[in-house]
């Protein structure tokens, strides 16, 4: 006989789905300019260590059954490792990024060319300032979109049209959290983890209404970019420093997988920033 406890465990069981990711090896990673509060060009960066951390992340994805394609880095584009910013790919539509800062401008065409070479359907260049999955996150059928520091409201409209999907605009207010993916982590089609103080009061109200079951992250989790993670529906890949968030995830039936991303954090990025998802 099946016990009530077993039935309950089965009904809440989480289902991982194999994902397709795009990553860019940090062969040219360094911090030579400052476009967010995490970056200090005077502080040393250990590229060999960054490479090891990145290789560990990539190997971990593969170990969990996910496919990883690697985009070659470009000399002189030290932030290209943050593949999430390269664009947005959902179903039969794709859009390559248009960056806010001139230091990263050439990454848009670099990712565009790679998308084109890999046959991604419905590919266009963003006309408006659009930093890809840094600011556009798919939750179920809806896109959540960040604005305030990088991607613009006009970009949200452009994305809604090109991808024919509802886009919910959210305003970011804390410069440490300049991209949506630094403070909001989609866990599955209906659930997110997020850090409310990073959003305007109006956007906080929208999020609490849309996601009453959200996991609310602590200041300490946010301060190590713990929310900059990737979920496959069960396993949640995130910084190993996000200890309270990992516990909260476990309590809700997810499996947190901690990765040391300390070297990449010096440029203001962690797990999600290094990962562009091809949403099939
Ligand atoms: N240094 C990069 C920038 O400021 C970091 C980008 C992080 N990427 C992300 N998806 N949040 O643009």
Automatic annotation (TrEMBL):
The keyword Hydrolase applies. The active site is at 179 (proton donor), 273 (nucleophile). One of its GO terms (molecular function) is dimethylargininase activity. Coiled coil: none annotated. Keywords: Hydrolase. GO terms for biological process: arginine metabolic process; citrulline metabolic process; positive regulation of nitric oxide biosynthetic process. InterPro entries: DDAH-like (IPR033199). The keyword Cell membrane does not apply. It holds the Pfam family ADI. Gene3D superfamilies: L-arginine/glycine Amidinotransferase, Chain A. Belongs to the DDAH family. PANTHER family: DIMETHYLARGININASE (PTHR12737:SF9), DIMETHYLARGININE DIMETHYLAMINOHYDROLASE (PTHR12737). This is N-dimethylarginine dimethylaminohydrolase.
